[in-house]
């Protein structure tokens, strides 16, 4: 058996990097394993306005994450770029197997995040951060007085459409059925809002634009008719928000820790899972708000709880 870390953190998004910062400052031997680029979803966000203490203008997701990475490394976090293939969590010493190596730790923080379920239209990936978004709380300010479109018909989609109506001059909900799936109380608010419109029985088939999103094709599933939506000439663009669910990156942990029916990991207020020495932080856990600030808080709590446990304070 090789080196036994105090904590191994799986994922280098805001939750994992914050956990690394707190663990490193507590002088815990810490390893962060990340298969891709640091930051997760935030790394592809062009502008960040709602993280406390940051620059109000000119802050990108990439620049914020770069500072988080630098902080974690400054306090001694080791880094590995690799894909985790298997985890053995039941014993006192946890085993993390990657495509290249095995790592051992007394504690593990699962911070693997979640990703938005894509709308499914052609060219979607090309316009993420350039008109396409999956977070109204993150990006509503960028669409002040613009027209925006929301794909979905559940509670989240309608609630986010109502939130967007505080900023946009018009919000159109595109739903593949002829009625919403959201709770009746939420539907009533949407129908009563003069800034909210609806495109029923419809799906977005394709989106386009020279640099930013300015055109899309919407197909009516009953008639087969395809409508081309073009941005107002003065605006030059519109927003397209997808709210058809998120998918947690938790497949690796199925049968290992408790999850809900959607695959989100159960964690208490101190980020403990149902397995001793295994913690969860960030968007992969069951929570009411998935934002950079809440992910970072989760990571800080998990690492602090581990430090207290190792130090015998608990």
3D structure, described in words:
- It is a single chain.
- With 314 residues, the protein is α/β, with parallel strands linked by helices.
- It has two domains: 4-115 and 246-311, FAD/NAD(P)-binding domain, CATH 3.50.50; 124-242, FAD/NAD(P)-binding domain, CATH 3.50.50.
- Helix content is 22%, strand content 25%.
- The protein has helices at 14-25, 61-74, 136-139, 155-164, 184-192, 292-311; strands at residues 4-5, 7-10, 30-34, 78-81, 84-88, 94-98, 102-105, 108-110, 114-116, 132-133, 147-151, 170-174, 196-199, 202-208, 215-220, 226-230, 239-242, 246-248, 278-280.
- A five-stranded parallel sheet has the order 4-3-2-8-19, covered by helices on one side. It has a five-stranded parallel sheet with strand order 10-17-11-12-13.
- Strand 11, helix 4 (155-164) and strand 12 form a beta-alpha-beta unit.
- Helix 4 runs parallel beside helix 5.
- The model has no long low-confidence stretch (mean pLDDT 93).
Layout: helices, strands, pairs:
Blueprint: E1 4-5, E2 7-10, H1 14-25, E3 30-34, H2 61-74, E4 78-81, E5 84-88, E6 94-98, E7 102-105, E8 108-110, E9 114-116, E10 132-133, H3 136-139, E11 147-151, H4 155-164, E12 170-174, H5 184-192, E13 196-199, E14 202-208, E15 215-220, E16 226-230, E17 239-242, E18 246-248, E19 278-280, H6 292-311
Parallel strand pairs: 1-7, 2-3, 2-8, 3-4, 8-19, 10-17, 11-12, 11-17, 12-13
Antiparallel strand pairs: 5-6, 6-7, 9-18, 14-15, 15-16
Helix pairs in contact: 1-2, 1-6, 4-5
Overall form: elongated
Strand content: 25-35%
The multimeric state of the shown protein is single chain
- Total helical elements: 6
The amount of helix comes to: 10-25%
Domain FAD/NAD(P)-binding: 5-299
GO molecular function: thioredoxin-disulfide reductase (NADPH) activity
Protein name: Thioredoxin reductase
Family: Belongs to the class-II pyridine nucleotide-disulfide oxidoreductase family.
């Amino acid at each position: 058996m090789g080196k036994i870390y105090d904590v191994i953190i799986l994922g280098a998004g805001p939750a994992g990097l914050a956990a690394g910062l707190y663990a490193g400052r507590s002088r815990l031997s810490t390893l962060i394993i990340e298969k891709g680029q640091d930051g997760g979803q935030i790394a592809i966000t062009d502008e960040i306005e709602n993280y406390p203490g940051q620059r109000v203008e000119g802050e990108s997701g990439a620049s914020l994450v770069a500072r988080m990475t630098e902080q974690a490394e400054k306090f001694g976090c080791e880094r590995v770029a690799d894909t985790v293939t298997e985890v053995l969590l039941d014993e006192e010493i946890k085993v993390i197997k990657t495509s290249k190596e095995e790592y051992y730790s007394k504690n593990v923080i699962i911070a693997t995040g979640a990703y938005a379920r894509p709308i499914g239209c052609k060219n979607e990936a090309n316009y993420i951060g350039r008109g396409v978004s999956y977070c109204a709380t993150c990006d509503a300010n960028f669409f002040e007085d613009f027209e925006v479109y929301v794909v979905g018909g559940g509670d989240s989609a309608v609630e986010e459409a109502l939130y967007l109506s505080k900023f946009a001059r018009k919000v159109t909900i595109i739903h593949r059925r002829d009625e919403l799936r959201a709770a009746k109380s939420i539907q009533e608010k949407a129908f009563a809002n003069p800034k909210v419109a609806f495109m029923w029985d419809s799906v977005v088939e394709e989106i386009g634009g020279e640099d930013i999103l300015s055109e899309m094709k919407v197909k009516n599933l009953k008639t087969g008719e395809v409508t081309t939506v073009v941005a107002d000439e003065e605006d030059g663009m519109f927003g397209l928000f997808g709210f058809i669910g998120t998918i947690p990156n938790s497949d690796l942990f199925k049968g290992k820790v408790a999850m809900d029916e959607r695959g989100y990991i159960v964690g208490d207020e101190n980020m403990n899972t149902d397995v001793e020495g295994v913690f969860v932080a960030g968007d992969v856990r069951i929570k009411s708000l998935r934002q950079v600030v809440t992910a970072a808080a989760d990571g800080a709590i998990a690492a602090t709880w581990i430090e207290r446990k190792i130090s015998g304070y608990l």
